């Protein structure tokens, strides 16, 4: 009896111990064959996977690099405009829109193997230290930079730095063999977004806005005031090549032209209820005639501006169909200094259209090919090549039909101007020879060229110089074969650009744009519209304008001015 009692008491204990030993042995062999099995029942799955890799992967893994390489892949599965920015790149990405950076305040070009100062920003650190245009920077902080081919990004990183930090420059000036030494204290260098403002025709002010940055509105208001002092009462706002920026800057600019109560734009997203923005009636140009110039590069905030003007029948849009970006991003800073720009909403023009072009999640390559596909389809040359979706018709305040789903279609379409474009012209532009000659000419004759008081005087002087023939010889020495017939066709175009680039080296953008744009067909059409008092759109006016387009511009051609003609000046010189 006692024996049975003892068995009854100990049997459960024996069974429990046996099970525990079995589990221990089983887990031991599993760990040998498969590694430890762990269950992550809480937390983020991605974090769990990274933890497992960090703890159990066969080799040592740099987890920081793994994470940095993985995050962009996550963003690539979203829309084309959501993006991750590394801590290393965040500062450079933001500088363009912040309105200033810390540097020495010069624009420069890498001429052969030497840094050539093209201009010194007025009031900037370099000017205060004594640097002058056409100085050659030989050493930076006692390290030799001359004789080494370096790209502009590398040079900018060296010249820029923390505010109040110092950089030592060894400079060769003119023909002097001696090296001059300057210690420059870095400071805030402004980044302008209103490139130029001038009177394009009697009473008509032209304003070129290259981006919508934090200081754009203040620059814009200043430009408007200056033009009004010159008795300009109507305005051309050039947004060609403007890829956008801060939406608030565009809204503030639009407000200057809108009567009180007009809808400017509204945004809406899954987590962001509809938010409407209306004009407050404080604008200084509410009654001023206005024309807006656009092209296929005009995007985002540029399209907000153009869409508000068009949908309110406030003025005419002239040029080509815009890019088609109707997504709103918010910028979120992360703890390590990196950032993400996440799409949180769509913006809509006053008529209710979203002008975002079609895209598929995770197919950014196809999306980025859209501009090229438009070009191949002939959309830059003919309005008839552009097919709008009838299911996305909207009406302006005055009842005109406009379309959503793919950019702002201009009221008056202007194809690319191909006048003077030949293979010879393309060669000298794409090779950089045209710009290089203008730079060397400016350097060689700087004493004479800097003696003129106004850009108009310098331009008049250059018009009487044999620039074209000398340039052809120069280009030939650089391997560009003479093509007399093609040179004859392209001569006026080449000469115009040479004059514009040379003048800019002494009078900056204020002298560059009036020369560069003197034969611009889109600008000339805008001037004609304003002079005729036809800036307010009517259905008949638009029909007549587009109907007469072919006879005024001639047959469209498959080739055209390369992007370099418009943007080469921004590519070939940088600011440090």
From TrEMBL:
Matching SUPFAM superfamilies: ClpP/crotonase (SSF52096), PDZ domain-like (SSF50156)
GO biological-process terms attached to the record: proteolysis; signal transduction
Domain PDZ residue range list: 90-162
SMART domains, A to Z: PDZ, TSPc
GO function term, MF aspect, one: endopeptidase activity
Keyword Hydrolase tagged: yes
Membrane-traversing stretches: 7-30
Alphabetized InterPro entries for the sequence: ClpP/crotonase-like_dom_sf, PDZ, PDZ_sf, Peptidase_S41A, Tail-specific_protease
Entries under PROSITE patterns matching the protein: PDZ
Tagged with keyword Membrane: yes
GO cellular component entries: outer membrane-bounded periplasmic space
Pfam families registered for this protein in UniProt: PDZ_2, Peptidase_S41
Gene3D superfamilies per the UniProt record, alphabetical: 2-enoyl-CoA Hydratase, Chain A, domain 1, 2.30.42.10, 3.30.750.44
The entry's keywords: Hydrolase, Membrane, Protease, Serine protease, Transmembrane, Transmembrane helix
Family membership: Belongs to the peptidase S41A family.
Name this protein carries in UniProt: S41 family peptidase
Gene source species: Candidatus Parabacteroides intestinigallinarum
Native organism taxonomy: Bacteria, Pseudomonadati, Bacteroidota, Bacteroidia, Bacteroidales
């Amino acid at each position: 009896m006692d024996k049975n009692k003892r068995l009854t008491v100990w049997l459960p204990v024996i069974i429990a111990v046996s099970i525990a030993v079995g589990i221990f042995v089983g887990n031991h062999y599993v760990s040998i064959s498969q590694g430890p099995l762990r269950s992550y029942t809480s937390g983020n799955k991605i974090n769990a996977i990274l933890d497992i890799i960090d703890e159990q992967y066969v080799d040592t893994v740099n987890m920081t690099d793994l994470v940095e390489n993985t995050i962009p892949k996550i963003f690539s599965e979203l829309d084309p405009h959501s993006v991750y920015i590394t801590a290393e790149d965040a500062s450079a990405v933001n500088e363009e829109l912040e309105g200033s950076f810390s540097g020495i305040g010069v624009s420069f070009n890498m001429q052969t193997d030497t840094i050539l100062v093209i201009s010194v920003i007025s009031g900037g650190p370099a000017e205060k230290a004594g640097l002058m245009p056409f100085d050659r920077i030989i050493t930076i902080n006692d390290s030799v930079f001359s004789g080494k081919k370096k790209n502009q990004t590398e040079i900018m990183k060296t010249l820029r730095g923390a505010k109040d930090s110092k950089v030592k420059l060894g400079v060769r000036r003119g023909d002097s063999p001696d090296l001059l030494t300057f210690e420059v204290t870095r400071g805030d260098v402004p980044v302008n977004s209103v490139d130029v403002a001038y009177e394009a025709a009697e009473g008509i002010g032209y304003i070129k806005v290259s981006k919508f940055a934090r200081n754009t509105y203040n620059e814009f208001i200043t430009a408007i005031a200056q033009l009004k002092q010159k008795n300009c009462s109507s305005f051309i706002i050039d947004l060609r090549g403007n890829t956008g920026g801060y939406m608030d800057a565009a809204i503030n600019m639009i407000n200057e032209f809108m009567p009180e109560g007009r809808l400017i734009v509204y945004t809406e997203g899954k987590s962001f209820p509809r938010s409407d923005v209306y004009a407050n009636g404080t604008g200084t140009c509410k009654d001023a005639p206005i024309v807006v110039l656009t092209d296929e590069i005009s995007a985002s905030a540029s399209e907000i501006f153009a869409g508000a003007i068009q949908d309110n029948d406030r003025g005419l849009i002239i040029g080509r169909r815009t890019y088609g970006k109707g997504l709103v991003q918010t910028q979120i800073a992360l703890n390590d200094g990196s950032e993400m720009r996440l799409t949180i909403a769509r913006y809509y023009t006053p008529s209710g259209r979203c002008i975002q072009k079609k895209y598929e999640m995770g197919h950014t390559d196809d999306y980025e090919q859209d501009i090229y596909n438009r070009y191949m389809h002939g959309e830059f040359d003919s309005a008839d090549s552009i097919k709008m979706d009838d299911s996305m018709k909207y009406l302006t305040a005055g009842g005109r039909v406009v379309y959503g789903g793919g950019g702002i279609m201009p009221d008056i379409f202007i194809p690319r101007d191909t006048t003077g474009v030949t293979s010879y012209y393309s060669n000298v532009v794409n090779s950089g020879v045209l710009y290089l000659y203008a730079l060397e000419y400016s350097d060689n004759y700087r004493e004479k060229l800097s003696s003129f008081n106004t850009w108009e005087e310098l331009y008049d002087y250059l018009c009487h110089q044999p620039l074209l023939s000398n340039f052809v010889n120069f280009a030939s020495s650089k391997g560009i074969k003479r093509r007399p017939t093609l040179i004859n066709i392209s001569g006026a175009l080449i000469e115009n650009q040479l004059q514009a680039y040379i003048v800019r080296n002494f009078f900056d953008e204020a002298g560059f744009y009036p020369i560069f744009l003197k034969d611009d067909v889109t600008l000339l059409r805008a001037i004609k519209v304003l002079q005729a008092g036809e800036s307010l759109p009517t259905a008949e006016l638009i029909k007549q304008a587009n109907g007469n387009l072919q006879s005024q511009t001639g047959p469209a051609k498959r080739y055209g001015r390369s992007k370099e003609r418009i943007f080469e000046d921004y590519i070939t010189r940088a600011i440090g």
